[in-house]
Specification:
The protein is an alpha/beta fold. It is built from 6 helices and 7 strands; from the N terminus they run H-H-E-H-E-E-H-E-H-E-E-E-H.
């Protein structure tokens, strides 16, 4: 297991906590009886909280608790939904595709400038849930990139557009977990 306090500060772009308003648009596309795995989340993640509130059974894991996505898999799950670290994107998507199950990952749109999506999804359908506004992952009110859900076998068509109803200053409750775990 890695020392998370060192990991947390090694790549600042990896720890972006999703506000609830960015989780809500994907929920209507998820199968009602699916068990959702949130592999980059703690119990206070907005993904975990919103999905449970919507009636889904949710399993979650995080490197905080020694459950490294590249080494850990829960016993039962049907679909992955989360906001993964922004680094190692290609490796994360390779693993998701290797499971041969649906997934919806909230990612920076900058990734579309890379050759990895073309290589990874050449033989499989990449679906995008695009937003009309940028997601504010912090409280600075300025975000230099747009985000979308990069999906596989989730959406009814390849590109779907959704409007975000942003709540100014809304911050993910997962920040409390970050503060708790980084004290160790």
């Amino acid at each position: 297991m890695i020392d998370y306090s060192k990991y947390l500060h090694s790549n600042k772009s990896d720890e972006k906590y999703t506000p609830q308003y960015a989780v809500l648009p994907i929920i209507k596309y998820l199968p009602r009886k699916a068990v959702i795995w949130c592999p980059f989340d703690t119990e206070n993640s907005e993904f975990v909280l919103a999905l449970k509130e919507a009636g889904y059974r949710v399993v979650y894991s995080h490197i905080f608790t020694g459950q490294d996505f590249f080494e850990y898999e829960p016993k039962r799950w049907d679909i992955i939904v989360s906001n993964p670290p922004f680094s190692n994107k290609a490796r994360i998507f390779e693993r998701c595709l290797a499971f041969r199950k649906p997934f919806a990952l909230l990612m920076s749109n900058f990734w579309l400038n890379d050759s990895a999506p073309c290589r990874l999804f050449k033989e499989r359908e990449l679906q995008l849930l695009l937003f009309d506004k940028r997601v504010e992952y912090n409280d600075l009110s300025r975000v230099p990139f747009g985000s979308s859900y990069f999906c596989h076998k989730v959406l009814p068509k390849q590109i779907v557009f959704e409007n975000l109803t942003k709540i100014k200053g809304e911050k993910s409750r997962m920040w409390a977990d970050v503060e708790k775990f980084s004290l160790f």
